[in-house]
Amino acid sequence: MIFKQYVVFGCALALRLGAGVEAAAEPLGTAFTYQGQLKQDGVPANGPTDFVFQLFNAETDGAQVGASVVRDGVLVVNGLFTVELDFGTSAFTGEARWLEVSVNGAPLTARHPITPVPYALRTHGVDGHSLDGADDGPIDALFVDSAGNVGIGTTTPTHQLEVVAPAGDVFQASGPTGLITYGAWVRATAAAAWSARFGHTSVVHGGTMWVIGGVDAGGNKSNDVWSSADGVIWTRATPAAAWAVRDAHTSVVHDAKIWVIGGRGATGNSLGDVWSSENGINWTPQTAFAPWPARNQHASVVHDGSIWVLGGAGLGGAELNDVWSSPDGVNWTEATPAAPWAARFGHAAVVHDGRIWVLGGRLAGNVLKNDVWSSADGVTWEEETPAAPWTVRWYHASVVHHDKIWVVGGDPGTVFSALGNDVWYSPDGVNWTQQTAAAAWPVRIGHASVAHDGRVWVVGGSGGGVLNDAWSLSGAPFVGAVLKLTAEGRVGINTALPSHPLHVGTDGTNGNGAHVTTGGVWTNGSDRASKKNFEPIDTRAILAKLVDLPVTKWQYQGEDDSIYHIGPVAQDFYEAFGLGGSEAHIGTLDADGVTLAAIQALSAGLEQKNAEIARLRARLDAIEAVLAKPPASPDRR
After folding, report:
1. Is the separation of the CB atoms in 412 and 418 below 8 Å?
2. Contact criterion met (CB below 8 Å) for 419 and 162
3. What CATH number does the domain located at 3-128 have?
4. pLDDT score for 125
5. 185-201+212-218+242-476 under CATH 3.40.50.620, yes or no
6. CA-to-CA distance for 508 and 506, rounded, in angstroms?
């Protein structure tokens, strides 16, 4: 009696794995399903059959691997049978394996190679953690840690899924919150050409980053100025600017100039001078003594065409909460002598969404804050949150990037007791997302952050030593982008709080809140507050162009031949109306707008026609009335 068999791997194994996923509480194990076909003298066998399966390390001879697996009384129907085999975790080590099958005590004539599918067991079998790349690919290409975090390209995943590309870009997904982020911190230089420092300032001017003043580890203050387009190569604009050495000052860019405002001088004295420069080399004093009290560790922003100075530490270290503004750095106006936020220094301020924002800082008595305040005019302030989710801190940095407020590092303790390197961002100052709990750059305070070249930058600072490094957050097009999947099945793109089945963004920079309703209707963001530059239109001209617009019946390439559409092509639409930002696309809002304008023109034309018809009807009625009168009788006298 001669038996022949053919073995099929794969489909049944996948089913086995799927079952393991559904029953998450039950370990997957090392068993896999074996399906085969058994023929006797060329005819499919039927009935109960005894099998013995043995694993070998060679096609002939060789050594047996693991124990034999005996399966008696297996029912064979029309030659087909299915059994479950388990040779243990040590059977598959990456080396070739062959399977020998005995039927009713007689071994078959040839062993059969094990296809690669069972080797998927190695991800949880050989070392319990990783899967190497194929064909001399990377070791630990896929890694699972003891907490169940999955890393691709990394063996230290910090999220439930983390993918690290060779260039250093990172994709991260956190399951409990459904939050997906993209981006990683990349070091541009470990030691810039400028000396290590903290308490300096940085701005972006003329397409480059600038580093201005500061203090070194020995307490020596500087007034040098440096610039760089890429954070790697730095050029010294001047070794000694006209203004005195200082740290804890502020800098802004206003009226196409770099400005240096106040700070702490060589002897620790607070300064109240204001300087400006178009090129970082030649500096002009705007005032030696501004009307506001001399100060350091204050905050400055540019808002509504003016430079603003907010709070800080005044003479004798007294905390301040006054607010001043100036259009030219010379003439200053006090917006308020005492804002409702507590007097503080070491805080941060930015301008976002048409408002000035104050974030955190240090109060009298070494009290630290994580409150957030905002104001449209510097006079009336609103407390957006008394306690943001980031820890209390001072001497941190803040920047606006991709229409979000970022909080970067700082000291969450008192007197340099617990420096941080966490990073947070928020679209509204209330709802915050942690970009990282521990960035790749060392913990620090007194650093500077700017938004440049599509990235957030961290430059210098003090933490475990004074630093002169420069780092940036990579993945520039997607930094701060959010994909949120909620438990209710809602999907948010660029919003962490989707209120619709599909919700895109929050403002004009990231989607304007466009969404799909529960009923399946695509709804564009169209709030008056989100629009600008309103202009009247000639509805009759639009109607005339619409009448001349070619409208045809057509198919999309790649669609089924039974599917047709009716409409114009984008090139004709753009040529006629000049709407949207592309000659290859038509926005639904633009098409609707053209249609509404044409309807208004038709309505106006119809009203005109109706008025003409009414006039003619009145004339006709008058004529008919005359004609309806009986003719006068002739006078027969």
Report:
1. yes
2. no
3. 2.60.40
4. 37
5. no
6. 7
